[in-house]
Design goal:
The protein has 387 residues and is of the alpha/beta class. The chain has two domains: 182 residues, 3-Layer(aba) Sandwich (D-Maltodextrin-Binding Protein, domain 2), CATH 3.40.190.10; 161 residues, D-Maltodextrin-Binding Protein, domain 2. Helix content is 35%, strand content 19%. The longest helix has 17 residues.
Length: 387
């Protein structure tokens, strides 16, 4: 196994797992170290956990920061963890188990922070004594495995994508797909939709978008971290969907863009709300995020799917951090906030290298004011802004 990035730990996957998906680290994906992300079974995950970020062969240090949740931001968290470990000696022990798992773990107070791509509603946060804030912005991207079709060569609109996942459109040579792609050579090949089987913020963003553009999808499936899919193959985590799509001829799936880009997957272009065809890239995610009014969003509750704008990617979303307002371990909370402050300031280039969109400086200042005003111990802020 190649050496793991410093600051990153993973629990071992069982023997007999499918071939791993590679998530490269380092600018422009040129770093020779890789994170091997394997699809493993639900039963094995329950036994071993998944994706703990802190050193493969060494247990997490007592000073390491503990978190769990979304797989959507895992690639950038991995990069940040490596750089922060090199700078401070403090690692990040992060279980990439999906947003639903992260919410459960923070509510059970088993980790210092939870991570979710579905923001919790303000009333839920208040009832649980929690606070949330956005950490980074990215895009969910449809990916496919169609012989002869190259990345970006195929385009779908939201209603057509919804009907694929409803089981209405069953073949890649369907007349509606052909009408959107008149020059494409589409095979008579059954479509195999791949979906997230775990509670997932990526699931929420994808189903939220499909529910927005398709009243039929909204009525029959709806938007949530976990839904009842009428057709398709389930897989756990962004890495699981990436693996299953890559291994299944005719498949279509949806993953965070870093997973598609790093693994050279066949991503699809989308027709957005303004009727323009857009490719998934940082400037398209930034265009969608430009409409975000964080200052007036109660508890930062904002969903960025189907935003207006000719250049906007339609399935854009923020990934959120969730912490206790009055943490049981103030020192651990302070250490986590120091890491997040460092990531906001010094992790911008690393985020950009993976086509995530860092938060604007004015939003970072809003978030830091939330930290000093809302995350406290004995009436005093646990984070003071000092290095």
């Amino acid at each position: 196994m190649p050496p793991q990035p410093e600051g990153l730990a993973r629990t071992a996957a069982p023997s007999g797992s499918p071939a791993p998906v590679k998530l490269e680290t380092g600018p422009d994906f040129s770093c020779k170290r890789v994170i091997l992300v394997k699809k493993i079974s639900m039963q094995c995950r329950a036994l071993v956990g998944v994706l703990a970020l802190a050193g493969l062969s060494v247990a997490a240090n007592a000073a390491d920061i503990s978190g769990a949740g979304a797989t959507f931001p895992y690639p950038v968290y991995a990069k940040w963890a490596e750089a922060y470990k090199a700078k401070t000696g403090i690692g990040l022990n992060y279980q990439s188990i999906g947003s639903g798992g992260g919410i459960k773990q923070i509510k059970a107070a088993t980790v210092t922070f939870g991570a979710s791509d579905m923001p919790l509603k303000p009333e839920d946060l208040r009832q649980s004594g929690l606070v949330q804030f956005p950490m980074v912005i990215g895009g969910v991207v449809p990916v496919a495995n169609i012989p002869g079709v190259k990345p970006g060569a195929l385009m779908l609109d939201g209603v057509t994508l919804a009907d694929i996942y409803l089981g209405v459109i069953k073949s890649w040579d369907d007349a509606r797909i052909k009408a959107l792609n008149p020059k494409a050579q589409l095979p008579k090949l059954a479509i195999a939709p791949v979906y997230r089987s775990d509670g997932s913020g990526t699931n929420f963003l994808f189903t939220n978008y499909l529910s927005t553009v398709s009243s039929t999808f909204k009525a029959n499936i709806g938007a949530n971290t976990s839904v009842e899919w009428p057709v398709g193959i389930g897989a756990k985590g962004n890495e699981g969907v990436a693996n299953m799509t890559a291994q299944t001829t005719g498949a279509i799936g949806y993953v965070e863009y870093a997973y598609a880009k790093q693994n050279k997957m066949t991503y699809l272009q989308m027709k957005n709300r303004d009727g323009k065809v857009v490719a998934p890239e940082a400037k398209a995610f930034q265009a969608a995020a430009a409409n975000a009014d964080w200052a007036n969003a109660d508890a930062y509750y904002l969903v960025l799917t189907d935003q207006p704008g000719a250049k906007s990617w339609p399935i854009t979303g923020a990934s959120f951090i969730i912490m206790y307002r009055e943490p049981k371990d103030p020192a651990a909370a302070a250490a986590a906030l120091k890491f997040f402050a460092w990531a906001y300031k010094d992790g911008v280039d690393l985020a950009n290298s993976l086509d995530y969109v860092p938060l604007p400086e004015n939003v970072v200042k809003l978030v830091e004011r939330t930290w000093t005003g809302s995350i406290t111990s004995a009436g005093k802020p646990v984070w003071t802004g000092k290095k």
